[in-house]
Write a structure and sequence with these properties.
Strand order of the largest sheet: 1-2
Number of strands: 2
Oligomer: single chain
Distance between the termini: 20 Å
Radius of gyration: 12 Å
CATH class: Alpha Beta
Order of helices and strands: EEHH
CATH topology: Alpha-Beta Plaits
Length: 82
Amino acid sequence: MSLMITDECINCDVCEPECPNEAISQGPEIYVIDPNKCTECVGHYDEPQCQQVCPVDCIPKDPTHEENQEQLWAKYEKLTGK
C-alpha cells in the first residue's frame, strides 16, 4: 500500500528530500505522493522515512492503493533495476 499526504500537511518541506524513490512532490496546495513510486521505503529502510520526519503526522497509508510486502518489493526492484 502506498502512502498519501492528507490536507493537514503544513508544507514544511521535510518529507520530500527524505523519499528515496522521489515519490513526493509539491502539488497544487500540499505535497503529494505518487503511488506508482511509493514503496513505503521497502528496500531502502525499515520504516517510511516521510512518516518519521513529518511533524504533523499527516502521512497515512492510502486505502485506494493497497499493496502487500511482495508487491512493494516488486515495485522497488522495478524502480531501482535491482
